Amino acid sequence: MVLAFMGGFFADTITYTELPLYFSSALHNDVKYAGLYSSLPSLAICIGSWISSYIADGLRRKGVMNITNIRKIFTSISGYAISLCLIIITFCGCRTWLVVSIYTFGMFVNGFKFSGYQLSSVDMSPTYSGILYGIANGFGAIFGIVAPLMIGAFTKSGATISNWSKVFYVVAVFSAVTTTIFALLSSAEVQPWGKPDCEQESKGTEIVEQKKNFKSQINP
């Protein structure tokens, strides 16, 4: 789950903070248009998250698949889609409309993550979901620092499309790798340590009562 957050945060940082820079410095668009173009992917991810939530709830309610598979599939769709779109963008050259269209579509599909790994903390531990989410999101936020530094390193010799393509390749590969690890190893089942305290206390009380009954049978 933590790795999935890291991969997702990396892609999000590029979208929310660095994409306007790409439009203005590499594609040489006017700043006001760069802001407009950069807002479209953000709108798309909101729409994607709404649609995916209805689909995921429908699959779970109808018993089509269990919650673990839902989380894995929706995370995979979002992670691989944004990775593929980032790679395709590197072949678009200076065609701004094409870059915007592809990236907007990628972020729309990326919205499926909100029915994927973003809810894993609640699935694994309803009691400690806030703590788990905070830890995972904290590790993911590290890439809010890494992304600008990486972009600065790659574009040091010039903010060219070629140099920016290196940025997109790194983010795409990292997102794909973290998505794959999540799809292979994750679980959305409630963990033993994540059950509500009342359930654990009830189970402990039940064990104590069983021991007392057993002793009373041995020593009437």
Protein described:
GO terms for molecular function: symporter activity. The chain crosses the membrane at residues 34-56, 77-110, 130-155, 167-185. One of its GO terms (biological process) is monoatomic anion transport. By secondary structure, the protein is mainly alpha-helical. It has nine helices and no strands. α1 packs antiparallel against α2, α1 runs parallel beside α7 (143-154) and α1 (2-26) packs antiparallel against α8. The longest helix has 31 residues, at 31-61. It starts with a helix and ends with a helix.
Based on CA inertia axes, which overall geometry fits? elongated
- DSSP helix count? 9
Secondary-structure-derived class: mainly alpha
> What is the first-to-last residue Cα distance?
52 Å
Overall helicity: over 70%
The parts where pLDDT drops under 50 for at least 5 residues are: 199-205
Write down the Rg: 23 Å
User: What does the largest sheet look like?
Assistant: none
**What are the secondary-structure elements, in order, as H or E?**
HHHHHHHHH
Query: What's the pLDDT, averaged over the residues?
Result: 82
Strand segment tally: 0
Estimate what percentage of residues fall within beta strands. under 5%
GO molecular function: symporter activity
Transmembrane segments: 34-56, 77-110, 130-155, 167-185
Keywords: Membrane, Symport, Transmembrane, Transmembrane helix, Transport
Protein name: Inorganic phosphate cotransporter
